[in-house]
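HUMAN: Now follow C-alpha coordinate order:
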Amino acid sequence: MANFFSVIIKQQTYLNLVYLLFAFPLGLAYFIFLVTGISLGLGLAITLIGIPILALMTVAWYGLGLFERSLSSILLNIKIKPMSNNAMKQKTVLKRLQKHLENSATWKSLGYLFIKFPLGLISFILIVTLLSTSIALIASPIAYYLSIIFPSMNFAVINRVEVITSYWPTFILTIIGIFLLFISLHIFNGLAYISGLLAQNLLSNSGKK
Protein backbone atom coordinates (compact mmCIF):
# COMPACT_ATOMS: atom_id res chain seq x y z
CA MET A 1 0.00 0.00 0.00
CA ALA A 2 2.88 2.34 0.82
CA ASN A 3 4.42 1.67 -2.59
CA PHE A 4 1.07 2.37 -4.23
CA PHE A 5 0.78 5.86 -2.76
CA SER A 6 4.49 6.77 -2.79
CA VAL A 7 4.48 6.84 -6.60
CA ILE A 8 3.28 10.44 -6.53
CA ILE A 9 6.36 11.72 -4.66
CA LYS A 10 8.99 9.85 -6.68
CA GLN A 11 11.03 11.96 -9.08
CA GLN A 12 11.29 9.07 -11.54
CA THR A 13 7.51 9.08 -11.97
CA TYR A 14 7.61 12.58 -13.44
CA LEU A 15 10.71 11.86 -15.54
CA ASN A 16 8.82 8.89 -16.97
CA LEU A 17 5.84 11.14 -17.66
CA VAL A 18 8.03 13.66 -19.50
CA TYR A 19 9.54 10.85 -21.56
CA LEU A 20 6.11 9.52 -22.52
CA LEU A 21 4.82 12.99 -23.43
CA PHE A 22 7.74 13.52 -25.80
CA ALA A 23 7.38 10.01 -27.26
CA PHE A 24 4.39 10.87 -29.45
CA PRO A 25 5.73 13.98 -31.26
CA LEU A 26 9.16 12.38 -31.64
CA GLY A 27 7.68 9.10 -32.87
CA LEU A 28 5.51 10.96 -35.38
CA ALA A 29 8.49 12.97 -36.64
CA TYR A 30 10.60 9.82 -36.98
CA PHE A 31 7.83 8.00 -38.85
CA ILE A 32 7.31 10.83 -41.35
CA PHE A 33 11.05 11.26 -41.86
CA LEU A 34 11.73 7.55 -42.36
CA VAL A 35 8.78 6.87 -44.64
CA THR A 36 9.54 9.93 -46.78
CA GLY A 37 13.29 9.29 -47.01
CA ILE A 38 13.09 5.55 -47.63
CA SER A 39 10.27 5.91 -50.16
CA LEU A 40 12.19 8.61 -52.00
CA GLY A 41 15.35 6.51 -52.04
CA LEU A 42 13.56 3.39 -53.28
CA GLY A 43 11.64 5.38 -55.88
CA LEU A 44 14.84 6.91 -57.28
CA ALA A 45 16.93 3.74 -56.96
CA ILE A 46 16.35 2.93 -60.64
CA THR A 47 18.14 6.18 -61.56
CA LEU A 48 20.98 5.40 -59.09
CA ILE A 49 20.28 8.70 -57.30
CA GLY A 50 18.25 6.81 -54.76
CA ILE A 51 21.19 4.65 -53.65
CA PRO A 52 23.14 7.46 -51.92
CA ILE A 53 19.85 8.71 -50.48
CA LEU A 54 19.23 5.29 -48.93
CA ALA A 55 22.81 5.16 -47.68
CA LEU A 56 22.38 8.56 -46.01
CA MET A 57 19.09 7.42 -44.51
CA THR A 58 20.82 4.50 -42.79
CA VAL A 59 23.30 6.91 -41.25
CA ALA A 60 20.51 9.29 -40.25
CA TRP A 61 18.38 6.68 -38.50
CA TYR A 62 21.48 5.30 -36.75
CA GLY A 63 22.13 8.81 -35.44
CA LEU A 64 18.51 9.09 -34.28
CA GLY A 65 18.98 5.76 -32.54
CA LEU A 66 21.96 7.20 -30.66
CA PHE A 67 19.84 10.20 -29.64
CA GLU A 68 17.03 7.94 -28.43
CA ARG A 69 19.52 5.82 -26.54
CA SER A 70 20.79 8.89 -24.66
CA LEU A 71 17.25 10.18 -24.07
CA SER A 72 16.08 6.84 -22.68
CA SER A 73 19.17 6.45 -20.52
CA ILE A 74 18.79 9.93 -18.98
CA LEU A 75 15.03 10.18 -18.48
CA LEU A 76 14.25 6.53 -17.72
CA ASN A 77 17.40 6.07 -15.63
CA ILE A 78 18.36 2.79 -17.29
CA LYS A 79 21.64 1.30 -18.44
CA ILE A 80 21.92 0.54 -22.15
CA LYS A 81 24.91 -1.18 -23.72
CA PRO A 82 26.89 1.01 -26.17
CA MET A 83 25.96 1.23 -29.85
CA SER A 84 29.49 0.83 -31.16
CA ASN A 85 30.19 1.17 -34.87
CA ASN A 86 33.57 0.38 -36.44
CA ALA A 87 32.58 1.60 -39.89
CA MET A 88 34.66 4.78 -39.68
CA LYS A 89 37.80 2.70 -39.08
CA GLN A 90 37.61 1.33 -42.60
CA LYS A 91 39.76 2.90 -45.30
CA THR A 92 37.29 3.13 -48.19
CA VAL A 93 33.75 4.49 -48.42
CA LEU A 94 32.39 1.17 -49.66
CA LYS A 95 34.03 -0.71 -46.79
CA ARG A 96 32.61 1.82 -44.33
CA LEU A 97 29.14 1.42 -45.79
CA GLN A 98 29.45 -2.37 -45.74
CA LYS A 99 30.54 -2.36 -42.11
CA HIS A 100 27.76 0.04 -41.24
CA LEU A 101 25.14 -2.18 -42.89
CA GLU A 102 26.54 -5.27 -41.16
CA ASN A 103 26.12 -3.62 -37.78
CA SER A 104 23.09 -5.10 -36.03
CA ALA A 105 22.43 -1.81 -34.25
CA THR A 106 21.83 -0.10 -37.60
CA TRP A 107 18.76 -2.22 -38.27
CA LYS A 108 17.59 -2.48 -34.70
CA SER A 109 17.62 1.32 -34.54
CA LEU A 110 15.30 1.40 -37.54
CA GLY A 111 12.94 -1.04 -35.87
CA TYR A 112 12.95 0.98 -32.66
CA LEU A 113 12.16 4.24 -34.46
CA PHE A 114 9.17 2.67 -36.20
CA ILE A 115 7.91 1.18 -32.93
CA LYS A 116 8.27 4.57 -31.25
CA PHE A 117 5.31 6.02 -33.16
CA PRO A 118 2.51 3.58 -32.14
CA LEU A 119 3.89 3.29 -28.61
CA GLY A 120 4.06 7.08 -28.31
CA LEU A 121 0.51 7.41 -29.65
CA ILE A 122 -0.84 4.90 -27.14
CA SER A 123 1.03 6.63 -24.32
CA PHE A 124 -0.28 10.07 -25.33
CA ILE A 125 -3.90 8.87 -25.52
CA LEU A 126 -3.67 7.19 -22.11
CA ILE A 127 -2.01 10.22 -20.49
CA VAL A 128 -4.58 12.68 -21.82
CA THR A 129 -7.55 10.41 -21.04
CA LEU A 130 -6.52 9.23 -17.59
CA LEU A 131 -5.16 12.54 -16.30
CA SER A 132 -8.11 14.59 -17.58
CA THR A 133 -10.58 12.10 -16.08
CA SER A 134 -8.75 12.02 -12.75
CA ILE A 135 -8.56 15.81 -12.49
CA ALA A 136 -12.21 16.21 -13.49
CA LEU A 137 -13.32 13.76 -10.79
CA ILE A 138 -11.09 15.34 -8.14
CA ALA A 139 -12.47 18.80 -8.97
CA SER A 140 -16.10 17.64 -8.77
CA PRO A 141 -16.96 19.62 -5.59
CA ILE A 142 -15.62 22.81 -7.17
CA ALA A 143 -17.52 22.16 -10.39
CA TYR A 144 -20.74 21.49 -8.43
CA TYR A 145 -20.27 24.69 -6.40
CA LEU A 146 -19.79 26.70 -9.61
CA SER A 147 -22.92 25.15 -11.11
CA ILE A 148 -24.87 26.52 -8.13
CA ILE A 149 -23.42 30.02 -8.49
CA PHE A 150 -23.84 30.00 -12.26
CA PRO A 151 -27.10 28.22 -13.12
CA SER A 152 -26.16 28.21 -16.81
CA MET A 153 -23.40 25.70 -16.02
CA ASN A 154 -24.48 22.08 -16.11
CA PHE A 155 -23.01 19.49 -13.75
CA ALA A 156 -23.63 15.74 -14.12
CA VAL A 157 -26.57 16.23 -16.44
CA ILE A 158 -27.75 13.25 -18.51
CA ASN A 159 -30.65 13.72 -20.94
CA ARG A 160 -31.39 17.06 -19.29
CA VAL A 161 -31.75 15.36 -15.91
CA GLU A 162 -29.41 16.45 -13.10
CA VAL A 163 -27.95 13.23 -11.68
CA ILE A 164 -26.12 14.81 -8.72
CA THR A 165 -28.21 17.23 -6.66
CA SER A 166 -26.16 17.51 -3.45
CA TYR A 167 -22.59 17.93 -2.29
CA TRP A 168 -21.82 14.54 -0.72
CA PRO A 169 -21.75 12.51 -3.96
CA THR A 170 -19.15 14.91 -5.36
CA PHE A 171 -16.74 14.00 -2.57
CA ILE A 172 -17.16 10.33 -3.48
CA LEU A 173 -16.19 11.29 -7.03
CA THR A 174 -13.16 13.11 -5.61
CA ILE A 175 -12.02 9.97 -3.77
CA ILE A 176 -12.50 7.92 -6.94
CA GLY A 177 -10.50 10.53 -8.88
CA ILE A 178 -7.64 10.40 -6.37
CA PHE A 179 -7.40 6.61 -6.63
CA LEU A 180 -7.61 6.82 -10.42
CA LEU A 181 -4.75 9.32 -10.39
CA PHE A 182 -2.51 6.95 -8.46
CA ILE A 183 -3.48 4.04 -10.70
CA SER A 184 -2.75 6.23 -13.74
CA LEU A 185 0.73 7.06 -12.49
CA HIS A 186 1.49 3.37 -12.07
CA ILE A 187 0.23 2.73 -15.60
CA PHE A 188 2.52 5.47 -16.91
CA ASN A 189 5.46 3.94 -15.06
CA GLY A 190 4.58 0.59 -16.64
CA LEU A 191 4.59 2.12 -20.12
CA ALA A 192 7.93 3.77 -19.39
CA TYR A 193 9.28 0.40 -18.20
CA ILE A 194 8.21 -1.22 -21.49
CA SER A 195 9.85 1.62 -23.42
CA GLY A 196 13.02 1.10 -21.42
CA LEU A 197 13.09 -2.61 -22.21
CA LEU A 198 12.69 -1.86 -25.92
CA ALA A 199 15.53 0.67 -25.75
CA GLN A 200 17.80 -1.77 -23.94
CA ASN A 201 17.18 -4.51 -26.51
CA LEU A 202 17.06 -2.48 -29.72
CA LEU A 203 19.47 0.39 -29.06
CA SER A 204 22.52 -1.69 -28.23
CA ASN A 205 24.92 -3.91 -30.12
CA SER A 206 24.74 -7.65 -30.33
CA GLY A 207 26.35 -9.67 -33.04
CA LYS A 208 28.26 -7.99 -35.85
CA LYS A 209 29.60 -4.50 -35.48
About this structure: Strands lie at 157-158, 161-162. The chain has seven helices and two strands.
